[in-house]
């Protein structure tokens, strides 16, 4: 077992494209964790979707053995953190397992908002933050300016920050040396009763639940009779080991170490993230102060296109939640779409990933309704309701007040784009609460309605700043607001699945935009289709999809039949991906028209 | 007795050669290189007939259609001998309709008269358009003058019955262009006009490099104006694209649309046969002229049984094309499947105003959306 003084537990905080994965790969290579042949690119991002999107969603860890310049061998545990704002809660979780964090900043681009937020979290949790300037190989690298910015924005000493290029490997060893010098070794009573914090749990089809743990106290050995504190259930530690990054059984994990435990648990809820593991014989061992459960921020209805898929859909959601405790779902019944589930997500990216996994891995064709945040409604009889589905909004007459969630958003933007970003925030009903000029960037703080932020704000901020601005936000409070329910009617019928909650001042504009987009998306059919947007009984926008002129094959003779049949089949395949509302066939995309209004 | 219970039998003969391939054509046609192998092809067709005789079952041949390709490339003598050969194994009904597809670009002195003397009694003339620019886009080998002469020649050669094929919705075509084509054709008083909208079919030059077609409004205006023009001159539509005067309908095509049987001779020809045990089979001949001529293996390239579950769609794909549709009784007679199996769909379509109450017939609205109707009869 490694002496505590020779262990370092750390995370890397970095913006999505500032080179975190490349740097992690370099560490692994340097410490011989994988042969070059095994070294698939960016090994830490293991899920296919993550690899495709170039982001990290789940925390992962790797144990590295590094022979330092002082001649000693150190055990370095890197706990990876997600790089997207939707998953910021996962960051805090990973940081709980560490004594330090590397703040990796692109020496050409400077600090960005999400890293700032994560750094604050790290500092709050008592971690030592070690700044690293990456991408020094790029001609536009300005290390001095960026060091200054780190000091200005985050308030940590950065003039001596290590400079490296993960791409060509230069300075990577220096980073590890700095890490050993600055990050304190873990502490804890190696002889005390076991106290292991569950950093993450995931479901593996062959092994059952695998939990990533940080040993705070004592030792966890294979065969130990263990207890999950919150559930009180006893298990046996069947396998114990570390990731190198390949899972490698070591038989035990000592105080200060990070590794995995497999105990035959079949359900992820049996090993909740943030929970504590101890021995069955020491049930009174204290819980490690954990982290709070994360709440979904965005809700949407998901409905199978074919009602026959309902059961398969439920099973798929069950399976997904085995591995994704932040995914929430409950049955929902829509007049228009039938039986489905209202699902809660951490954000739009999370929603897209879940949707994609359901369609790709489970083969379920889905219709997703427009995502919405949670609103608070005070009824006239004084009751407070939470509404995450516009169609469940109480009657206007019985609504005393509606409140919407407000976030505090922090945006870092180069000075030349500040006008664009401010204009965007104003357009999104934002209220500026702070503006600080840094060396070349400006830090803007806004209070914004969450509904204006979750859908596409991040993309907008990016395009308003040629990709340079960065954003972080967190929920602040509920605030009374003049909100209305915007209904969409197709051929005079209100479609519950298309209802939206919008601010009164934006209702006309949003109504027109949604109607126009739906007109583009709904194919012409045998009859005219009237599409209307209405608030209550007041129609605020209307449009018509003109009837198809005709749909008939010009010629069909004896030898043509099988070819013509194939054409019909093809047309029908297209129709299968649509939902019939009354007589009208509506394509899946139309239910998300509200998200597409700005596409051109 | 079998005659009332078995569908009428037609014969389709395919001649696969063309002077050159038109960019819109998805039929089995091959540009001719070298001499036409008339004798060898006739020999191959008659040999091929042996593979089909099992499906004849004593039925007379009511109609013959010789399509292509460009069957008018073949000489009158070719047909004369071919029919003699066919008669040795088949009974041609005394009033059999025998149609030949004729390309105005193959018009030579006396050619049509020769066809008439060989026993062909109906011509289908592939005019497509009378406007030089459109003929060029369509890759036709004839000009407007040849098209007009072809119609005159047909009549002069003794063809009382002939059809003119015209296309509309051509690249850059205006309403006036389309109507002018109809008027030019009607001036020669053809008893039958097939007036098709140009469709970009897979596996054609137009499909891979689509020409710019008129917008949907123009297409609709052309269709409306054309229908009015044809009706105004005494033509009645009896099928989606087929117009005739004085009830002079194409009996051969009618047999297709009434789900009748047909033998298939020639490279790439398709046939359909109902067997006495109720099986219905489609089959097709090898497409490559060389392979067909040299009989590389069986000339029958493939066959498939039309399962009872597929028959309603296949029947309706054809029958509902007819303006008057068919009697309900014909459904079971031709498919062997009880009408009750599609009763729910029929009822729904009738309620939606797409089918008429007592026949298997589309309403005028149903005719316009025929493909949408047929999709309801597609299995999953």
TrEMBL record, chain A:
Family: Belongs to the GTP-binding elongation factor family. LepA subfamily.
Pfam families, A to Z: EFG_C (PF00679), GTP_EFTU (PF00009), GTP_EFTU_D2 (PF03144), LepA_C (PF06421)
Stretches assigned to the Tr-type G domain: 5-187
Keywords: Cell membrane, Elongation factor, GTP-binding, Hydrolase, Membrane, Nucleotide-binding, Protein biosynthesis
UniProt xrefs under PROSITE patterns: G_TR_1, G_TR_2
InterPro entries: EF-4 (IPR006297), EFG_III/V (IPR035647), EFG_V-like (IPR000640), EFTu-like_2 (IPR004161), G_TR_CS (IPR031157), LepA_C_sf (IPR038363), LepA_CTD (IPR013842), LepA_IV (IPR035654)
Function: Required for accurate and efficient protein synthesis under certain stress conditions. May act as a fidelity factor of the translation reaction, by catalyzing a one-codon backward translocation of tRNAs on improperly translocated ribosomes. Back-translocation proceeds from a post-translocation (POST) complex to a pre-translocation (PRE) complex, thus giving elongation factor G a second chance to translocate the tRNAs correctly. Binds to ribosomes in a GTP-dependent manner.
Main localisation: membrane
Binding-site positions, GTP: 17-22, 134-137
Recorded topology in the membrane: Peripheral membrane protein
Annotated EC: 3.6.5.n1
The UniProt record lists the keyword Transmembrane: no
Example of a GO biological process term: positive regulation of translation
GO MF: GTP binding; GTPase activity; guanosine tetraphosphate binding; ribosome binding; translation elongation factor activity
Record field: catalytic activity: GTP + H2O = GDP + phosphate + H(+)
Subcellular location per the Swiss-Prot or TrEMBL entry: Cell membrane
Record GO cellular component, one term: plasma membrane
Gene from which the chain derives: lepA
Keyword Disulfide bond assigned: no
Name of the protein in question: Elongation factor 4
UniProtKB/TrEMBL annotation, chain B:
Subcellular location(s) per record: Cytoplasm
GO biological process terms held by the UniProt record: porphyrin-containing compound biosynthetic process
Cofactor(s) of this protein: [4Fe-4S] cluster
Coiled-coil stretches: none
GO cellular component: cytoplasm
Nucleotide-binding is among the record's keywords: no
Claim: DNA damage is one of the keywords in the record: no
Keywords, in A-Z order: 4Fe-4S, Chaperone, Cytoplasm, Heme, Iron, Iron-sulfur, Metal-binding, S-adenosyl-L-methionine
Boundaries of every Radical SAM core domain copy: 3-236
GO molecular function, one term: metal ion binding
PANTHER family: COPROPORPHYRINIGEN III OXIDASE, RADICAL S-ADENOSYL METHIONINE DOMAIN-CONTAINING PROTEIN 1, MITOCHONDRIAL
Similarity comment: Belongs to the anaerobic coproporphyrinogen-III oxidase family. HemW subfamily.
Described purpose of this protein according to its UniProt entry: Probably acts as a heme chaperone, transferring heme to an unknown acceptor. Binds one molecule of heme per monomer, possibly covalently. Binds 1 [4Fe-4S] cluster. The cluster is coordinated with 3 cysteines and an exchangeable S-adenosyl-L-methionine.
Protein's recorded name: Heme chaperone HemW
Organism: Tamilnaduibacter salinus
């Amino acid at each position: 077992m490694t002496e505590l003084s020779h262990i370092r537990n750390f995370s890397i905080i970095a913006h999505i494209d500032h080179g975190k994965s490349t740097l992690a790969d370099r560490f692994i290579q340097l410490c011989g964790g994988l042969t070059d042949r095994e070294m698939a690119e960016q090994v830490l991002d293991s899920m296919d979707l993550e690899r495709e999107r170039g982001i990290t969603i789940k925390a992962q860890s790797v144990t590295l053995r590094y022979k330092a310049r002082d001649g000693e061998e150190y055990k370095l545990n890197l706990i990876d953190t997600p790089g997207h704002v939707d998953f910021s809660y996962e960051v805090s979780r990973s940081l709980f397992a560490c004594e330090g964090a590397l703040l990796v900043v692109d020496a050409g681009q400077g600090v960005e908002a999400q890293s700032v937020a994560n750094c604050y979290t790290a500092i709050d949790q008592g971690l030592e933050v070690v700044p690293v300037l990456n991408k020094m190989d790029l001609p536009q690298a300005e290390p001095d300016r960026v060091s200054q910015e780190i000091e200005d924005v985050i308030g940590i000493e950065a003039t001596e920050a290590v400079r490296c290029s993960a791409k060509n490997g230069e300075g990577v060893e220096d980073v590890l040396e700095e890490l050993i010098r600055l990050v304190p070794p873990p502490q804890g009573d190696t002889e005390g009763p076991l106290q292991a914090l569950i950093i993450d749990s995931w479901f593996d089809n062959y092994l059952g639940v695998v939990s990533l743990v940080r040993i705070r106290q004592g030792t966890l050995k294979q065969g130990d009779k263990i207890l999950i504190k919150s559930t009180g259930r006893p298990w046996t530690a069947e396998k114990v080991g570390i990731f190198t990054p390949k899972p490698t059984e070591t038989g035990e994990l000592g105080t200060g170490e990070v590794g995995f435990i497999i105990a035959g648990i079949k359900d992820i809820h049996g090993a909740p993230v943030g929970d504590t593991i101890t021995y069955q014989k020491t049930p009174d061992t204290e819980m490690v102060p954990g982290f709070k459960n994360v709440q979904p921020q965005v809700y949407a209805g998901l409905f199978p296109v074919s009602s026959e898929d309902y059961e398969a859909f439920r099973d798929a959601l069950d399976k997904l939640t085995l591995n994704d405790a932040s995914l929430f779902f409950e049955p929902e019944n829509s007049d228009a779409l039938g039986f489905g589930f209202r699902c809660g997500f951490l954000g739009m990216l999370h929603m897209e990933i879940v949707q994609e996994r359901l369609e790709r891995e489970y083969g379920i064709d889905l219709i997703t309704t427009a995502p919405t945040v949670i609103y608070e409604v005070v009824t006239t009889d004084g009751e407070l309701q939470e509404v995450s589905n516009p169609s469940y909004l109480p009657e206007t007459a019985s609504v005393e007040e509606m409140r919407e969630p407000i976030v505090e958003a922090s945006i870092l933007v180069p000075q030349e784009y500040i006008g664009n970003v401010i204009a965007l925030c104003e357009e999104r009903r934002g209220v500026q609460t702070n503006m600080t000029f840094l060396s070349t960037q400006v830090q803007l703080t806004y209070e914004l309605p969450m509904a204006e932020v979750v859908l596409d704000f991040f993309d907008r901020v990016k395009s308003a700043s040629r990709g340079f601005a960065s954003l972080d936000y967190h929920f602040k409070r509920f605030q009374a607001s003049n909100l209305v329910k915007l209904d969409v009617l197709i051929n005079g019928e209100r479609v519950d699945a298309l209802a939206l909650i919008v601010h009164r001042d934006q209702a006309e504009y949003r109504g027109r935009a949604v109607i126009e987009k739906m007109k583009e998306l709904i194919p012409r059919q045998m009859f005219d289709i009237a599409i209307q947007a209405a608030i209550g009984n007041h129609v605020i926008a209307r449009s018509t999809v003109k009837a198809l002129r005709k749909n008939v094959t010009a010629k069909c003779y004896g030898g043509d039949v099988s070819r013509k049949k194939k054409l019909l089949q093809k047309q029908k395949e297209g129709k299968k991906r649509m939902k019939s509302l009354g007589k009208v066939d509506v394509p899946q995309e139309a239910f998300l028209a509200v998200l597409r209004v700005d596409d051109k | 007795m079998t005659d009332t219970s078995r569908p009428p039998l037609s014969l389709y003969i395919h001649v696969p050669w063309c002077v050159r391939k038109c960019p819109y054509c998805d039929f089995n046609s091959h540009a001719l290189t070298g001499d036409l192998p008339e004798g060898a092809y006739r020999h191959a067709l008659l040999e091929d007939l042996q593979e089909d005789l099992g499906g004849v079952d004593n039925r007379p041949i009511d109609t013959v259609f010789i399509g292509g390709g460009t069957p008018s490339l073949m000489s009158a003598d070719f047909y004369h001998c071919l029919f003699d050969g066919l008669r040795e194994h088949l009974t041609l009904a005394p009033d059999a309709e025998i149609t030949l597809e004729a390309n105005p670009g193959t018009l030579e002195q006396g050619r049509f008269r020769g066809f008439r003397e060989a026993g062909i009694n109906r011509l289908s003339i592939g005019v497509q358009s009378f406007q030089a620019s459109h003929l060029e886009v369509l890759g036709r080998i004839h000009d407007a003058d040849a098209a007009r002469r072809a119609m005159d020649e047909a009549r002069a050669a003794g063809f009382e019955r002939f059809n003119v094929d015209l296309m509309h919705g051509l690249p850059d075509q205006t309403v006036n262009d389309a109507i002018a084509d109809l008027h030019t054709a009607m001036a020669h008083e053809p008893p039958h006009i097939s007036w098709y909208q140009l469709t970009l079919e897979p596996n054609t030059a137009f499909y891979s490099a689509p020409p710019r077609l008129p917008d949907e409004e123009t297409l609709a205006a052309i269709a409306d104006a054309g229908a009015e023009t044809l009706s105004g001159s005494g033509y009645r539509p009896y099928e989606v694209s087929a117009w005739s005067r004085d009830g002079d309908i194409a009996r051969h095509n009618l047999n297709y649309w009434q789900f009748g049987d047909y033998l298939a001779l020639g490279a790439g020809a398709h046939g359909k046969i109902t067997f006495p045990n109720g099986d219905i089979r489609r089959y097709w001949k090898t497409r490559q002229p060389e392979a067909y001529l040299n009989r590389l293996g069986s000339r029958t390239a493939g066959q498939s049984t039309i399962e009872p579950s597929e028959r309603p769609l296949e029947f309706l794909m054809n029958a509902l094309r007819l303006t008057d549709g068919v009697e309900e009784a014909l459904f079971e007679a031709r498919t062997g499947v009880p009408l009750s199996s599609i009763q729910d769909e029929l009822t729904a379509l009738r309620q939606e105003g797409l089918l008429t109450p007592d026949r298997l017939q589309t309403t005028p609205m149903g005719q316009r959306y025929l493909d949408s109707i047929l999709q309801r009869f597609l299995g999953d």
